[in-house]
Amino acid sequence: MSKVIMIQGTMSNAGKSLLAAGLCRIFRQDGYRTAPFKSQNMALNSFVTEEGLEMGRAQVVQAEAAGIEPLVCMNPILLKPTDDEGSQVIVNGRSIGNMKARDYFAFKKQLVPTIKDAFRKLEEIADIIVIEGAGSPAEINLKENDIVNMGLAEMVGAPVLLVGDIDRGGVFAQLLGTIMLLEESEKERVRGLVINKFRGDASLLDSGIEMLEDKCGIAVAGVIPYMDIKVEDEDSLSGRLTSAGSGGDIDIAVIRLPKLSNFSDMDVFGQFPDVSVRYVSRAGELGEPDMIVIPGSKSTIADLKWLRAAGFEDCIKKCSSKGIPVFGICGGYQMMGEAVSDPEVVEGGGSIKGLGMLPVTTVLAGEKKTCRYSGCFEDAAGLFSGLKGLAAEGYEIHMGRTVIAGMNGVSSDASQSGSGQLSGFTSEGTGCCRENIYGTYIHGIFDRAEIAETIVRALADKKGLSLQTVAIDDHRDFKEKEYDRLADILRASMDMDMIYDMLEEAAF
Predict the structure, then answer these.
(1) Position 236 pLDDT exceeds 60
(2) What is the average pLDDT score of the chain?
(3) SS3 198
(4) Are residues 493 and 404 in the same domain?
(5) Which of 223, 160, 222, 150 is nearest to 191 (CA)?
(6) Domain of 488: which CATH number?
(7) 440: which strand partners?
(8) What pLDDT score was predicted for residue 408?
(9) Would you name the residues annotated as active-site residues?
(10) Please, which residues have CB within 8 angstroms of residue 337's CB and are 6 or more apart in sequence?
(11) Residue 30: pLDDT band by 50, 70, 90 thresholds?
């Protein structure tokens, strides 16, 4: 049997995902075959495995930290919210349809065998499994048939590290209050407490830690400092979505759609000290950036309606008319076309006129396309013509089929929108471009260093700027260094002897 340890939190965004990734890297460094596991993840940030199966990106990050290929058994259930009351339910990498929250709550106990099967597969390949919980184990209204926190810990015999977030205040109340709301058998599973995101002199916490340990009878395993680790955050809780950017000379504005997905597509630009990536929720904030990105969306039609109602359409087109490049990815690419329709009621039905910036039409369909991509930029036009011929990698995740008009000698009414000649952008029909308007289905399209550098250099040349840095690591290599840095910080701030003792208590 594999040894197991589980990370649970006092709330969402307490730091479970990052702590799990750091432990995965530490155990790997110490010579153990390590794998992450999260039975149920709710996120719009997802990834496609080599088998074409969809899983949450948090477990992909943890798998990278563990030095192994992401496998869908690391995240057998993925919930992708479609609205405030329901989600698309993905089991073992395939969508089984949309469910309202109440319906899923009644259904989820049927997934226990799926969870157990996935966990057993990991036991065959790992010495240590690092499990991440979800939300808080003290959500007493959701404890019945729990499959992701204490219910899962009991299912697989895992000791628990409970993490609290001091940055948001009240960390002692968070930790003690959570323990007090647990059943006695659940309290016994909590073998250590962690105070996360601390700023300042940790010795100032000594008296509080002593009182906390006295009241709950559980030792504090570490005080982790607030870390500036450039590793992907979990979904919409990411602080970067509300930040104004780094104030760099190159300004990239990303439209913050209500159902924005895979915002990690922009992470590579964080390596450039001269580049600022900001997420814009109001049209008045857009201004005249150096590049506009319309990102992926879980609900293309609804988000396009929002974009239009918020006044972004006119602003984006005005910027485009001034030569500012506009880049659409996946759902953003669909929005930039002539029309999007949903005859099979995949996202609620109906149809909508697109932004009309590219001659493409999209029909949403029930069958989801999930696959890896390995191709190239075929015939890039405009400011980013330097991309032509460069190799590109990534993955597709979308429900729609998009038809490109006006290419290969084929003309249609749609192809008359805009001006300039239409070109294939990413190969295999996955995108097209016209002048400074670009669209592609490929997530992760910027991750190769050569691609990101070409884009940043073109934006700088347009402004007549000489940048500090235009040479970076491939995003994969950059993340490897960040995982090592994360592990160093955790080793310095946690009692690793206590952690290894907890592993020996697995299956108690």
Answers:
(1) no
(2) 91
(3) strand
(4) no
(5) 160
(6) 3.40.50.300
(7) 329, 431
(8) 47
(9) 330, 443
(10) 354, 355, 356, 357, 358, 359, 360, 361, 362, 402, 414, 439
(11) very high
